[in-house]
Amino acid sequence: MKPGIHPPYGPVVFRDRAAGFAFLTRSTATSDKTVEWEDGRTYPVIDVEISSASHPFYTGTARVLDTAGRVERFERRYGSRGGSRDDHGSRR
């Protein structure tokens, strides 16, 4: 790496306040706020709105959309276009 052009890279705590979850990692992000970590040392802390502890995909609370029902509703409303199709969606 070329010296003098990169920001400092050091330990930072990212904290998801909604889930009460925090993790220590290394980053170029900085903050004026600090927090005392489990090892007794003080690190800069960055509060985030969402993390793997609160994101619906990772927590298993994601909603499953009914895409088949939406397609059928669209076809009822606007009809199928482009001529007739066989059972596999191919044109005859």
From TrEMBL:
GO terms for cellular component: ribosome. Keywords: Ribonucleoprotein, Ribosomal protein. The keyword Ribosomal protein applies. HAMAP family: Ribosomal_bL31_2. It comes from the Bacteria. Belongs to the bacterial ribosomal protein bL31 family. Type B subfamily. The gene is rpmE2. It holds the Pfam family Ribosomal_L31. This is Large ribosomal subunit protein bL31B. Part of the 50S ribosomal subunit. Gene3D superfamilies: Ribosomal protein L31. The keyword RNA-binding does not apply.
